Amino acid sequence: MNYVEIIKLIFSIISALISLYILHFFFFSVLGAIHKKRFPKADEKCHYAVLISAKDEEKVIPRLINSIRDADYPQDKLDIIIIAHNCQDNTADMARSMGARVIVYNDLSPSSQTLGAAYHYAFKQIDVKNYDGFIVLNADNVVKKDYFDKINDAFLYYGKHDPIATFRHALNIKDGALPAVYSYYFAAQCTLVYAGRANFGVSCRVSGCGFLIPSRLLENGWNYTSITEDIEFSGEMILKGENIRYCDEAIFYDEQPRKIKIMWFQRLRWAKGQIIMSRRFVPKFFKALFAKDKKNKMSLYATLTFHSFIVLTIFFLFLAQNILLLLSPLFSIPLEETFLYWNNDASWFYNLFISSHIGALFELLRSLIYFHLSCYFIAILILIGSRGKYKNQPKIPLILGFIIFPLFYLLQTPLDVCALFSPNIKWRKIPHGE
Q: How many separate domains does the chain show?
């Protein structure tokens, strides 16, 4: 076995171990596509506050309020609370005119620009004991008519005890491939990851908006103020032994970016927040896994793998492998053979998909092909597992979104690398209603 073969073997073993580490994702994905947990219809109607943070959202806030008012749920059991977050337009007046309670939050200090900081301020003004729970939405959302009924069924099923995440659909798929591919991205999270975990009582996490928090968890206010407050909240809840549930039948719609530039900055913030939270939570989750008093070991493990630096780890392993392969001439193996070897006596199919003796560049091509095929498999699972949620959506954007779906995931690598080396990534407003 020569130097190149030894290096490739070592990194193949490492890659196999990483695959085993995250194998449960595949398990939950298949089961999530096959089976969705359903909840019996509840007679009791809980009293909820619908909490909405809005920064210069006068264009879209009426759309959301109207969808809430048009819902089937008893309106005397829904209080709409708008957090007018450093607004310079008529968001507050618009919301008041439509009967919503408005909490004005004006704080321009850099540390107070996050959504979590706005929630922290708002909960100081709210008596949480007046409500059974808080349903968190964004100003650009729209809820399905039975949204509150479905989330109420799940909430009562779990004894008004647990947070509930819901299905996040794209509102503006008709606007093109980018909103469509976002819809696949969030559907993968909901249909495959959350639904699969829900079947086994394993905790999922909340993601941005479209979730319910029982009032018992907010008695001391909201204390999650990072640039990704949803990840912070989820991590703390699971460490405390809470179980974040999922209701697939409660569907809300979320307006997605139409421009690549907006998409880049949004996902860059997510990536930076993920890195910050991973540094904070990975040691805690690893320690908790071996604590005797912790009973939610699978939830802890699943969340630990989410917080792990998987994408960055794979990227730096790839870099390390190829740097070591560049040293092959020191062991009398030409670089051309190391990176471009191709067996001319074998078929291209054998070389590309079966042979273990091809150049490193062709191995990279093989990995990219397998990655694309895996993403297309995921997209097909989404369409199967969505149970008709895409039935009435425009077909051309969905087809285009399907085609670029692997590129959307592949972009995570440069995003994570940029986020790792970018010290000051701040929250930026996403334009809505354009």
A: 1
Kindly report the pTM of this predicted structure. 0.92
Neighbours of 220 (CB within 10 A): 8
Query: 391 is written with which tokens?
Result: 């039935």
Predicted confidence (pLDDT) per residue in 391-424, tens digit: 889 999 999 999 999 999 999 999 999 999 988 8
Look up the CATH number of the domain holding residue 61: 3.90.550.10
Q: Is 359 left (phi over 0), alpha (psi -120 to 50) or beta?
A: beta
Mean pLDDT, residues 67-93: 95
pLDDT tens per residue, range 291-350: 988 889 999 999 999 888 999 999 999 999 999 999 999 999 999 999 999 998 889 899
Report pLDDT digits (tens) over 355-401: 888 999 999 999 999 999 999 999 998 888 887 899 889 999 999 99
Strands 164-170 and 245-254: parallel
Convert the chain into a string of H (helix), E (strand) and C (coil). Answer: CCHHHHHHHHHHHHHHHHHHHCHHHHHHHHHHHHCCCCCCCCCCCCCEEEEEEECCCCCCHHHHHHHHHCCCCCHHHEEEEEEEECCCCCHHHHHHHCCCEEEEECCCCHHHCCHHHHHHHHHCCCCHHHCCEEEEEECCEEECCCHHHHHHHHHHHCCCCCCEEEEEEECCHHHCHHHHHHHHHHHHHHHHHHHHHHCCCCCCCCCCCCEEEEHHHHCCCCCCCCCCHHHHHHHHHHHCCCCCEEEEEEEEEECCCCCHHHHHHHHHHHHHHHHHHHHHHHHHHHHHHCCCCCCCHHHHHHHHHHHCCHHHHHHHHHHHHHHHHCCHHHHCCCHHHHHHCCCCCCCHHHHHHCCCCCCHHHHHHHHHHHHHHHHHHHHHHHHHHCCCCCCCCCHHHHHHHHHHHHHHHHCHHHHHHHHHCCCCCCCCCCCCCC
- List the domain range (segments joined by +) for residue 413: 1-434
